[in-house]
Amino acid sequence: MNKPLIGICIDHVRHFPRPDRDRSYLKLYPTYPNAIIAAGGTPLVIPIVPDVNDVRALLSIVQGVVLVGGDDYPAEWFGKTTLPTDAPVTPERANFDREFTRLLYEETDLPVLGVCGGMQMTAIWGGGSL
Predict the structure, then answer these.
(1) Which residues, including other chains, have CB under 8 Å from residue 101's CB and lie 6 or more apart?
(2) CA-based Rg of the chain, rounded to a whole angstrom?
(3) Which of 61, 73, 75, 99 can bridge 80 by disulfide, Cβ–Cβ 3.0-4.6 Å?
(4) Domains present along the chain, CATH in parentheses
């Protein structure tokens, strides 16, 4: 029996050790792939990619998706004002997650597990508020 391939979105962290040196990186806590493996699946990390066709290609090979948690999405996306206490995700992550979520719900019927920020993005995409 083939194990289901489960896509996992990933976090983006900006890191500039010097103003002219971008050492930004992608991050994933091991609890996500470990949980998928423990449940009998095979995890596939879905990186932040700029081309929507690459996103479609990734979505075409998985049997489910985990939208991971993270920091705060732009409050303006759900009709609120950003607060000084907000810890925003990077624009790269925010924009990718929004487009990925749109494609996921509009163009597939894949099962989705949203964890923390992943559930929040689902609510935002659906027109909800936080």
Answers:
(1) 67, 121, 122, 124, 125
(2) 15
(3) 75
(4) 5-125 (3.40.50.880)
